[in-house]
Amino acid sequence: MVSSSLYSQLVPDAPAHRRTERDVVHTGALGLRQAAGRSFDLPLATPGLGRPQLVSSYQGVIDQILFAFPSYGMDDPDSVTGYRSVIEALRPGTRFVVVHHKSRRAEAEEWFTTAGHDSGNVTYVPLPDYVSFTDWAEDGYVAVTDAEDGSSYLMEPWEFPRAGDALISEAVQDYVDISSGQAPLIFQGGNCLVGSDFWLLGRDYFADSVALLDGPRPPVEPPAGLTGADFVRTLFADYVDTDRRLIVVGTRRPLPLREYYGTREADRYFLDGPADGAGTYQPIFHIDMFLTLIGPDEQGGFQVLVGSPSMGSDLLGTRSPYDLDDVYDTLAADLERAGLNVRRNPLVHRPTVGRILTMEELRGMAERPDGEPLQAALAELAAAGAGDSDEVSVRSWHHVTWNNCLVENSSTDGVRRVYMPTYGHGDNADLAVIDNHMRRMWEGLGFEVSMLADFNSFARRQGVVHCIKKYLARGE
Fold first, then answer.
1. pLDDT digits over 247-302, tens only?
2. What is the mean pLDDT of residues 431-440?
3. What is the 3-state secondary structure of the chain?
4. pLDDT band at residue 35 using 50, 70 and 90 as cut-offs
5. pLDDT of residue 5
6. Do 218 and 168 touch, CB atoms closer than 8 A?
7. For the residues 316-332, what does the mean pLDDT come to?
8. Residue 461 in contact with residue 17, Cβ under 8 Å?
9. How far apart are CA 177 and CA 151, in angstroms?
């Protein structure tokens, strides 16, 4: 986990409104997450009240979808291009719930009108201009239906510290027939993917939920005889999904990821940092950045895509210090052991060169209380020949992912469509080879592919198209 104060010094020009901002262990103590994340392979708990069921990540057509368009996004041409490309691509008849700042209603309406969507299918949810919500509509809740009575909920975690996003579900329930609920658990929507008879949860937030119950004044206490991890499974069944099998995705031990590396390329020196995008037990902080649920194959086996940095590197002829190929391979093997049919697809790490500092300035930073992670990197730079007066470019790496897409897989209507972000534009034109690779791959699986606009600016903020929406309802 990158020190946020040190990172802000090294990368002062990092994009604002990153998906990882304030996305910290709820206790502020990484050690509690690490201690809690060791033994999660426990049996599924007995269902509790009602029958909560998560809205699918793949199955059926997208019937109702939520977007959140804050003023900062509506003021940014790159973000607007991305927003509008999704709106224009989604089929007529899709129902939309649009959260927006009150003063920007007319602009939002124009996007949907121009795209040809019936105004009766768009519900606008205004928030006061002073509410600081983000466009990462996926994360602050999960969409749940109670199978006993058909009621719908946006189920919130016990804590969600990112900006004012925790206000969204309460506002939405005033405009559509969906209620806001809260669970005594730690999760975010982007760390959940919902399959047929199973759902996936990233191990980081399972560990955080165990740590929440083990911490001071927990919201609930385990009954006698239940371990913290067993009780967390019970709570997820009671509040999130009763019928589906919970599969926890992540490594068994914390990732041995260094925060910074010192690199020399020709006559230039670089300080490489991961742009705060890695998790503790996950190679990326949310599983929707490296996993995609496809649906059943002709034999009935469930197909899942798992990102592969080595495939991306082979296609581009580049390498990243943060590839972690063995971690992705391990998680792919784990999913196969869980009974899923795994396919692999390219995933890329991309650098942005920012601030230039001398070795002497970096040594001063390394002497600060939070500067210890720099020391190994500075030793590498010194060994490569960098002296005190030599300049070092800070290179911040982010994930470029095609896994973070929207999938419609309808056995009834025969609609099989994927809405895919693209990146092969402008200075990133070389990424077009992977855009085309992914288009051919999806077409080979029998899907129609809607190629969306340039999502590079979103990727630099640690999210893509799956992150800026929330599925509220699916059709058959």
1. 999 999 999 888 899 999 999 999 998 756 889 999 999 999 999 999 999 899 99
2. 98
3. CCCHHHHHHHCCCCCCCCCCCCCCCCCCCHHHHHHHCCCCCCCCCCCCCCCEEECCCCEECEEEEEEEECHHHHCCHHHHHHHHHHHHHCCCCCEEEEEEEHHHHHHHHHHHHHCCCCHHHEEEEEECCCCCCCCCCCCCCEEEEECCCCCEEEEECCCCCCCCHHHHHHHHCCCCCCEEEECCCCCCHHHEEECCCEEEEEHHHHHHHHHHHHCCCCCCCCCCCCCHHHHHHHHHHHHCCCCCEEEEECCCCCCCCCCCEEEEECCEEEEEECCCCCCCCCCCCCHHHCEEEEEECCCCCEEEEEEEHHHHHHHHCCCCCCCCHHHHHHHHHHHHHCCCEEEEEEEEEEEEEEEEEEHHHHHHHHCCCCCCCHHHHHHHHHHCCCCCCCEEEEEEEEEEECCCCEEEECCCCCCEEEEEEECCCHHHHHHHHHHHHHHHHHHHCCCEEEEEEECHHHHHCCCCHHHHEEEEEECC
4. low
5. 65
6. no
7. 92
8. yes
9. 8
Q: How far is CA 258 from CA 175, 307, 353, in A?
A: 46, 21, 19
In the chain, the amino acid numbered 272 is D
Percentage of residues in the chain having pLDDT higher than 70: 91
Instruction: Check: pTM over 0.85? Answer yes or no.
Output: yes
Phi, psi of 47 (to 5 degrees): -60, 150
Alpha-carbon dihedral of residues 46, 48, 50, 51, nearest 10 degrees? -30
High-pLDDT (> 90) share of the chain, %: 80
Q: How far apart are CA 347 and CA 323, in angstroms?
A: 9
Of 8-22, 121-135, 350-364, 438-452, the range with the lowest mean pLDDT is: 8-22
376-411: per-residue pLDDT in tens?
999 999 999 999 999 999 998 999 999 999 999 997
pLDDT score, position 6: 73
Rounded CA separation 78/198 (Å): 36
Nearest to 334 by CA among 198, 442, 209: 198
